[in-house]
Amino acid sequence: DLLSNILAQLSLNFWLLQHIWTSYAVYIWFADYHAFLPVLFSKIWKKKSLLIEGGYDTTIIPEIRYGSHISALRSKMSSFAMRHASLNLPVCETLTPEIIKWAPGAKIQHLYTGYDFNFFKAKGQKKKIILTVATGNSEQRIRLKGINEFVNVAQKLPDYRFVIIGIGKEGRNHLINLPNNCELFDKINQKELLSWYQQAKVYAQFSMREGLPNVVCEAMLCECIPVGFRAGGIPIAIGNAGYIIENRSIDEAAKAIKLAMATDSKKGIMAREHIINNFPQKAREEKLLKLLADPNL
After folding, report:
1. In what order do the strands lie in the sheet with 225-229?
2. Which of the listed residues 60, 78, 79, 162 has the most CB atoms within 10 Å of its CB?
3. What's the CA gap between 150 and 205, in Å, rounded?
4. In 10 A of CB 85, how many CB atoms?
């Protein structure tokens, strides 16, 4: 709740005040209100500050009241953090123009998130499953992650098995007319999720927007054939290794799912290779260390 969040922020910043003067740099995930004081303290104590934008912190979607900039105060705090950070490191280049919009003059260099290809890997025979993963039970999260569209596509393709992971009992109340071929599972642990990635032939991402979608990249490492709307970083993640839907059309999405299901396993191998070549964990680690060592930052 609000009170516990305020207390947590106070505790965090009290700790930061005690330790920042002995620190080399401050590393902050997401440019929301919580980034305001760490960036301010970094400037006062002349420390490097690296600010990582994930997507919600650079946008506003009024129809679902989503994004850090939905509130005027929150937006000002977010913009201050982005403008005064030593360097902004959005997880995908699609976020760069959004940062410029909210914080003109901000220093920006996109840095992809990296993925563990030794953990996320294929195993066994693929099944005729179309999978999507989206944690959260609110109507906002369900609309944001395109779960309604996923259900609508399932209705159009009754011969296929559709699986949604991460939607609990409350979330089910927002999904009406759930077809028999669409199954819902609550939040599960990473090993269980890995098993689903390994079983599913197709992974679908029908979000309204994304930064660089982790679940798409993880699924692709497990040789799922990706299908997704052209929104934010989804096409960056998919590349040429899957099917990108240009319009938010249920009919077009259904066609793309059928195409992916009819594709042979070589496309899944291509999907894995695309993630290994473009988003390795080691590349992110090396780039971060190089940036931290840069005397001009």
Report:
1. 182-185, 161-165, 127-133, 200-205, 225-229, 243-245
2. 78
3. 8
4. 28
For residues 260 and 153, what is the distance between their CA atoms, to the nearest angstrom?
14
Q: What is the pLDDT along the chain (297 residues), one digit of tens a residue?
A: 668 888 888 898 899 999 999 999 999 999 999 999 999 999 999 999 999 999 999 999 999 999 999 999 999 999 999 999 999 999 999 999 999 999 999 999 999 999 999 999 999 999 999 999 998 889 999 999 999 999 999 999 999 999 999 998 888 889 988 999 999 999 999 999 999 999 999 999 999 999 999 999 999 999 999 999 999 999 999 999 999 999 999 999 999 999 999 999 999 999 999 999 999 999 999 999 999 999 888
Q: Which domain holds residue 14?
A: 2-114+281-293
Residue with tokens 């997401």: 30
Domain assignment present for 119: no
Assess if residue 148 is contained within a domain: yes
- Same structural domain, 79 and 199: no
CATH of the domain at 64: 3.40.50.2000
Nearest 5°: phi and psi at 227? -135, 130
Burial of 218 (0-12, 13-18, 19+ CB in 10 A): buried
Residue 55, in any domain of the structure = yes
- Total count of domains within the chain: 2
Q: What is the DSSP letter of 138?
A: S
